[in-house]
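Bug #77: duplicate submission created two jobs. Keeping one. Sequence:
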Amino acid sequence: MRKENSTNAINEQFLFQVCELNSAIAMISGRWKSQIVYSISQGNNRFHLLKKELPNISEQVLGRQLRELETHAIIIKREIPETVPSGIEYVLTNKGIDLVPVLEKLCDWGKTYADGKAIAVCSDLINSSR
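Kept job's structure:
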């Protein structure tokens, strides 16, 4: 945890005040967050489905990324009624739904400028929007 009066924290606060883009990028930064949001938008809305869709992510990291997305109100965690044991699903909020086309555009941009380093999830994003 960073100290509130550290140089990094002060610089971060300044950047957030200067431009909302910095805040937006901070909300979705993290190696897996964009893939998680996209995967939920495609119906992989339970922990085990996300883990299956993203096999290289550890359960600990997946849980942390989901909590952070929930903290930023991009997803909500909802209990599935009448399941034993009780089930949880992740649902995109309006903010999360609005984020999906932004991720698709970023994916297009990355495909154009990432020197051929497109990944399958990114390609799926682009193809699903057309």
